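Appendix B, example 12.
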Amino acid sequence: MGYIEQLLGENERILFRTRQHALVLIRPTLGYGIPAGILIGLTIASGILFPPFTLPVVIAGLALAAIPLVLLIHSLLRWWNEVYLVTTRRVIQVEGVLNKNVFDSSLEKVNDVVLRQSLLGRLLNYGDIEILTGSEIGVNRLSRIANPLRFKQVMLDQKAALGEHLGLESPGGGETAILLAQLEALRRSGLLSDQEFEEKRQALLKRQGS
């Protein structure tokens, strides 16, 4: 079982997963990859031009080239391990390669969602999302994430479905057909197991028949 799967509660499922757009890798690739390539090229050229010093030059050149290469690999690992999730209950942000930082917001506490996309962001399908919650932090910012429109849509749809689920558990209600349709939607989304669905359906029919 992976680290992310261990974060999930009972019957909690991942509905959508994304990370920062690959565009964020341009800076570390240019900043670390080009110097590493130049150092390796100079090492090879020096070994050819100065054969008596080939071994020490190669060792020194590769040692220097290893520094930007390690930094580049670290940047790639950080990007790969920074994941944004929408589950049936929460929005989760996971960061870190070895040391993990996890931030999550319950969908029930989400008050509003702000999406910002530049023209380039619309063309390349990335953007910034701010999740406004009722918690002490108040705002959770997700910067330059890939497919932000889909992320926002899944989050708001699940929040609405969760609200319907909570509403079904309170007294009162609408017409039986509507409530049954809502129960079926909750079962399909995974918020209700088959057993829970059947129990609530029977209870609803019994209540409507009394």
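The radius of gyration is 26 Å. The mean pLDDT is 82.
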